[in-house]
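FAQ

Q: What does a record look like?
A: Structure on top, sequence underneath. For example:
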């Protein structure tokens, strides 16, 4: 069984744990589609227009968007 040779110092332990606190932060960019411009998470399809930016293909429609209608009683 592996046993550590030395005690892990408080500084080493705390510096290793600092990155776990930043998981909740999300960077947002704008949609590459000039008609849309909605905020988008990088490397994800745009929730408004369904487009995705690809290196070789440029802006690609990956999700067919359907307009939502309110069903009232």
């Amino acid at each position: 069984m592996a046993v550590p040779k030395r005690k892990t110092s408080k500084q080493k332990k705390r510096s290793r744990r600092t990155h776990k606190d930043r998981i909740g932060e999300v960077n947002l960019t704008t949609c590459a589609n000039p008609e849309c411009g909605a905020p988008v998470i990088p490397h994800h399809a745009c929730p408004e227009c369904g487009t995705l930016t690809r290196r070789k293909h440029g802006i690609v429609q990956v999700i067919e968007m359907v307009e939502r209608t309110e069903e009232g009683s």
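Q: Is there anything notable about this one?
A: Residues 10-17 form the longest helix (8 residues).
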